[in-house]
User: Which sequence fits this backbone?
């Protein structure tokens, strides 16, 4: 049963699965935990998590073998190590469910609160790794995900776990000779109805606002540059020529914007150089602003610091601004805990460790404020939220997903960025080196997208609305409420036991 639950969780996510399965994925796990003790629950939960995360993160092995040049056994070991770490949260969840059940807490309540709280911890502990949290499985279900502008992704996670627990109680009551609570069913149905109803009316409201909004054309250029030659100096001119020709083939309307992916310019743009002049020349010839990724550096006291950056050029070729990536990828862009683990090196070829940027400050062009999310910054809700609070008008995710090959990772990556648009009610455009490039509207609808390993241009239209959201203003208040309710529940159960003990 634990193995089956892990399999269903894995199959809830792209590219192999469907989000519908998430609503029943935990039923086998609840069955496995029915008569378990806390120690048994730890093993059961760990097994569920391990199977799920191996399925979701198998691509880690591909990346470290293909580009970290590690032997295949080391790549598999690295993937299993990460999967095992993430499985600890599922193990703690299972132990918590068993423990609280023994203390008298209904599984429907304990499971929903525990999973939500633990998912939040996982998303922040040790820089956080919120890759494919449970809510992300619902990225294609428009009416379900609209609640994210109030609760963030965690309200959706809470609901999925709640429905799983109620379904389990209802479906197994007769088999186990137990009774289920009508209150649980009514509560679950009410929560679903509220979320679905809110999604329906909120979508209509946003679409009405978009009808009155001013449009802007964007051109997203997907160069499909082979990762094996991307940093080879012999191919730099060829790479740049590919991006130039694609851009000039699909110049957006006046007032529009051209976007290239992360490190589309695989050289130091700030250095005077013919390659730099070629990029500037493209902005001038097209007559449109150009946003593109390139590494940058700063020298201080004879020591260089490197950044993964995005530059914004005006249509006259003048640099309008630069954003330096804040949330770096561990072992991809820097090596954490290097002193403790000196034998572990950086897996990405190109430059040395990157230095994080100073903050999420929008880049401004023609009065529009662009919130730039480089690569996996798009999976962190707080990054886009910071941009919204800094009055960003448009979110732009530039990424290089060539690392992932033809695995499920590019599709998973896209599924998470959808929620940044919903949480902040902003358009999000995504330019990827190999796909998936996309235009996403403020309701999370993917209006257009490319395929992976396709050299192409995606033209689309974005609109600007000034829509306030509860989530942008107050953040993860819903999670803190879940944590408070969990603590309060434990306290009440303890008081009841103490009171019962005194009476006996």
Assistant:
């Amino acid at each position: 049963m634990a193995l089956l639950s892990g399999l269903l969780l894995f199959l809830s996510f792209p590219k192999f699965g469907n989000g519908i399965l998430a609503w029943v994925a935990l039923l086998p796990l609840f069955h496995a935990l029915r008569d378990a003790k806390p120690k048994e629950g730890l093993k059961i939960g760990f097994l569920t998590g391990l199977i799920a995360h191996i399925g979701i993160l198998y691509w880690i092995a591909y990346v470290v073998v293909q580009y970290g040049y590690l032997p295949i056994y080391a790549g598999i070991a690295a993937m299993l190590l990460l999967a095992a770490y993430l499985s600890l949260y599922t193990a703690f969840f299972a132990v918590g469910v068993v423990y609280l059940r023994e203390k008298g807490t209904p599984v429907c309540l304990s499971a929903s609160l525990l999973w939500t709280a633990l998912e939040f911890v996982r998303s922040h502990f040790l820089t956080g790794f919120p890759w494919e949290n449970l809510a992300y499985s619902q990225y294609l279900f428009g009416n379900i995900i609209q609640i994210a502008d109030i609760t963030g992704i965690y309200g959706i996670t809470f609901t999925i776990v709640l429905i799983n627990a109620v379904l389990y109680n209802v479906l197994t009551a007769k088999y186990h000779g137990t009774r289920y609570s009508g209150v649980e069913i009514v509560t679950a149905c009410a929560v679903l109805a509220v979320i679905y109803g809110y999604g329906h009316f909120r979508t209509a409201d946003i679409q009405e606002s978009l009808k009155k909004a001013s449009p802007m054309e964007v051109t997203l250029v997907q160069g499909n540059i082979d990762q094996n030659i991307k940093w080879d100096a012999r191919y730099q001119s060829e790479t740049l020529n590919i991006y130039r020709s694609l851009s000039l083939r699909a110049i957006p309307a006046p007032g529009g914007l051209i976007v290239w992916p992360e490190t589309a310019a695989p050289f130091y743009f700030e250095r005077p150089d013919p390659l730099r002049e070629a990029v500037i020349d493209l902005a001038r010839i097209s007559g449109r602003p150009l946003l593109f990724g390139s590494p940058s550096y700063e020298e201080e006291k004879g020591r260089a610091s490197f950044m993964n950056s995005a530059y914004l050029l005006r249509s006259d070729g003048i640099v309008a601004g630069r954003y330096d990536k804040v949330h770096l990828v561990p072992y991809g862009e820097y090596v954490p805990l290097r002193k403790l683990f000196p034998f572990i090196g950086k897996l990405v070829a190109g430059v040395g460790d990157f230095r994080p940027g100073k903050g999420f400050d929008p880049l401004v062009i023609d009065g529009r404020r662009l919130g730039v999310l480089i690569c996996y910054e798009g999976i962190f809700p707080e990054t886009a939220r910071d941009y919204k609070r800094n009055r960003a008008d448009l979110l732009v995710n530039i990424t290089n997903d060539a690392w992932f090959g033809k695995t499920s990772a590019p599709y998973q990556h896209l599924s998470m960025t959808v929620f940044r648009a919903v949480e902040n009610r902003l358009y999000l455009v995504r330019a990827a080196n190999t796909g998936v490039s996309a235009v996403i509207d403020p309701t999370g609808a993917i209006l257009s997208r490319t395929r992976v390993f396709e050299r192409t241009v995606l033209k689309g239209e974005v609109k600007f609305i000034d829509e306030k959201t509860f989530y942008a203003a107050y953040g993860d208040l819903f999670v803190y409420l879940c944590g408070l309710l969990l603590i309060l529940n434990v306290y009440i159960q303890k008081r009841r036991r103490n009171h019962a003990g005194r009476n006996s």
